[in-house]
Amino acid sequence: MTMNVAQVRLPKGLMHEIDVLVDKGLYANKSDVVRDAIRKLVLEKQIGSIPNTGDSVKEIRVIRKKLSKEEVDLDKINKL
């Protein structure tokens, strides 16, 4: 899988919080934290645009898979 690189500048406090998430083992590295945060932002923008089929959990899983080009352990993410 090919990924693009984006350089961002973050305040020290936010970087500290990202480090805490990595240190706790919730994420493997800082890049994973940032990618997940962006996925969540994009997902939130999808709220209201998802047709209601009666199975919202399934709908969200489909969207998450589309947002991620990586294999995602949805059960692990949902337990966070």
Blueprint of the fold:
Elements: H1 12-23, H2 30-46, H3 56-67, H4 74-79
Please, could you describe this protein's structure?
- With 80 residues, the protein is mostly helical.
- It has one domain.
- It has 4 helices and no strands.
- The longest helix has 17 residues.
- It is elongated, with a radius of gyration of 14 Å.
- The two termini are 26 Å apart.
- The model has no long low-confidence stretch (mean pLDDT 79).
Features:
mainly alpha; 4 helices
Count every beta strand, where a strand is a DSSP E run of 2 or more residues: 0
Shape: elongated
Largest sheet: none
Helix count, DSSP H or I runs of 4 or more residues: 4
Give the termini separation: 26 Å
Mean pLDDT across all amino acids: 79
Listing every helix as H and every strand as E from the N terminus to the C terminus, the arrangement reads HHHH
Q: Work out the radius of gyration.
A: 14 Å
Overall tally of structural domains: 1
Task: Return residue spans where pLDDT drops below 50 for at least 5 consecutive residues.
Answer: none
